[in-house]
Amino acid sequence: MIKPSPLGSLSADHPCLWGDIALTPAASLVIERKARLLPTRRTGRADPWWTTRKQGGLDAEGRTIKALNDLRGYRPIYQLPADLPSQPLKGGKQRGLVLYGGTVFEHFGHLLLDLSRLYQLLPLFRKSREPIWFHYPSLGEGESITHPLVNDWFECLGIIKRVQVVRRTLQCEHLISSEVLYRDRRFVSTDFPLAARQALAPKLRRKLLSLQPDSPRIAYLSRHQLCSGTTYFEGEQEVVDALKKISNIDIICPEQLTIESKLSLYRRYQLIAGFAQAALLLKYFAPFRKQSELAEQVLFVAGPQSLNSNWVNLDKAFGFGDKVVDCSLTQELAEYPESKAFQRHNRFNTGLVIDTMRELAGR
Known about the structure:
By secondary structure, the chain is an alpha/beta fold. It has helices spanning 108-113, 116-125, 148-157, 192-197, 202-209, 236-243, 259-268, 310-318, 350-360; strands spanning 5-6, 17-18, 23-24, 29-42, 53-58, 70-72, 75-77, 93-103, 132-135, 163-165, 170-178, 182-183, 187-189, 218-221, 229-234, 249-252, 271-275, 296-301, 307-308, 323-326, 342-347. The protein folds into two domains: 5-19 and 204-360, no CATH class; 28-180, no CATH class. It has nine helices and 21 strands. A six-stranded mixed beta sheet has the order 1-20-18-17-14-16, covered by helices on one side. Strands 5-4-11-8-9-10 form a six-stranded mixed beta sheet. Helix 6 (236-243) runs parallel beside helix 9. The protein is globular and about 70 Å long. The chain starts with a strand and ends with a helix.
């Protein structure tokens, strides 16, 4: 049986890995006077999706504030056109202080990680009554925020009543934001761990800190009931059926839980395992006095692009020492049909996953 390997020491040429491995210095705050935030507007382009809209911020001279641009990998997302007139824009709503938290994406993983500007601001402005402004590209004109995961996360952060969406140009006497502490498949900054640990509302942090492990049970976070997503792992039902027979393993489908309940898993269990998925990112926001209080995490991966470099970068930054198990099949056996509901469709060595879980469970 293949033993779990340290996640943070995974080499950049690992066949499952996707993206760059890098830690960067602490991010800087963005402080601009006489700046403007431009709302999300359609560009008139139908494809690709990251060019269908534009949004961003301008400084006092009408130049793009590059630190407020969104990127994934090396791909710009919804950026303002390069030929935008350089003269200061007129019009828009006048505001004194504007706190800008970044862009809201409804995909759970991007919702958690792409709001890193917000996490940098929260410790500084936790007791402020000032609204926090966001771009929300998928929100239609006049629509309110109804997405359950988005609202649930803002509740966990304790800012649900302060959330405002940039719907028209804001003229900002003082604009305060931050460079990102994380860039998808590129890097994690050294100050992301502290910002993430301070992100939850103080009341929720205290509640989670009061939880203790129920027993030496372990949890398997299953994706077998998902109908769509990034990667479908064919054969996971077989794994689930086998693990149900092991008395000290709990099968958990994260999509059936609230975010608070997902966070509590890291205080209640000593070990959590599963294929790489967004729910496992919540460990980085779970509060602790000592790292040993949180569940150890074991990630299963299988096939090309089944592990983006965010996981390696985050483990390097946080120093949790979590583990990874490559349960890929040979390339000849791993051929699979395309799935419209999932971006990728991977097969894996089901026996290896089952045997690893049995060993972790001491059975």
